[in-house]
Amino acid sequence: MSRFYITFGWGHVHSIGGKTLDKDSVAVIDMPTYKDARNRAFELFGPKFGFIQTEDKWDDETLLQYFPRGLIEI
Q1: Has this prediction a pTM greater than 0.90?
Q2: Which of 15, 28, 55, 61 has the most beta carbons within 10 angstroms of its beta carbon?
Q3: d(CA 62, CA 45)
């Protein structure tokens, strides 16, 4: 399994399992491939998400400053 990070744009607000996801948070999902993660993102959020980052491209130290609500595991 690989870890994928999904960001959201302005106006992209979702409630999944009692957790609110929006532009100030990052959804984290574990899936076997990027394609699986992308398909899951569309299942959960429709077309209302920003980007999907792979684990090797994500850097907490640099990127979390832009997401004050932090990482939210789905």
Answers
A1: yes
A2: 28
A3: 25
Check: CB of residue 12 under 8 Å from CB of residue 22. yes
Using one digit for the tens of pLDDT, what is the confidence trace for 3-42? 999 999 998 899 989 999 999 999 999 999 999 999 999 9
The pLDDT assigned to 11 comes to 87
Going from N- to C-terminal start, the domains of the chain cover 2-73
Question: HEC profile for 6-73?
Answer: ECCCCCCCEEECCEEECCCEEEEEEECCHHHHHHHHHHHHCCCCCCEEECCCCCHHHHHHHCCCEEEE
Amino acid (one-letter) located at 32: P
